[in-house]
TrEMBL record:
This is Transposase. It comes from Cylicocyclus nassatus (Nematode worm).
Amino acid sequence: MGRHGDTGKCASWDLEQIKTQYLLAEVTANGAQPLNTADDTSYVSEAQIPAHLLDRLNTATRTFAEITLRVSDVARFMNFYMKKYFRSHTWRIPNVPEEQDEQEQEKLTQWSTELGLGLPSLSAYKRVFTELRPSIEVVHEKHQNRTIQQIRTAYEREGCPTPWDIAVDGAFDSRGHSAELCKVLAVDLRTKLCIHTEVVSRRETGNVSGAMEKEGFRRLLRWLRSRDIAVGSISTDRSAMYGKEIESYNAESGQNIKWHLDPWHMARYVHKNLQAVS
């Protein structure tokens, strides 16, 4: 919890640690309608905040700060975080027909039965994931903020606070054109720390596996820009896609990011060609 004496800052920080799924469960249990993720105009109104929930929150906050929450504070908090968790591209879940969901679950159940493994039901999985997702996001964001600060400190210590030099690469859950997921990862070359990861589903790219890495890289660039992280160079494999996307991004954002080929990928390319002609 927060420290006494720094009321404003600590109160705000600790308020954000109150589990969002608790707020959502409390409001839903008292007749409120959760945010409809398909409708951008949906929101939680002040009238939907139960009085006893406000009392509980004020009781909790008084243990570490002399503040009194209003209904409008809770509604604004819920609106912000519900939109963040359910609309953020980092947690985007494509709409999957219920019939397709059940078919995939049936295949997984058959596979686990053959191996003698016990798996939770589809409804149990969805319920647990929905309840845990907000907390996962909170913990992830705290860790990511610490990592970004470590990288900033490392650059400042060497007298060159910006821009950063990073490496980017994509990885798929299976080889060939049958991949369902693609992870695009950015790593700072100075500290060797992971900055950010984007995960793209094939359902988000019209079921085209080859388009997932491009989409993930685009999201990664947008995320770097949203965090005001200036990038000087990006090292990647030999895929021409990266060069084209960086060129397009530079024209759009007015930046001058340089594209470098990763030495390991380049060495492997040269090695394969030397073997072919020898």
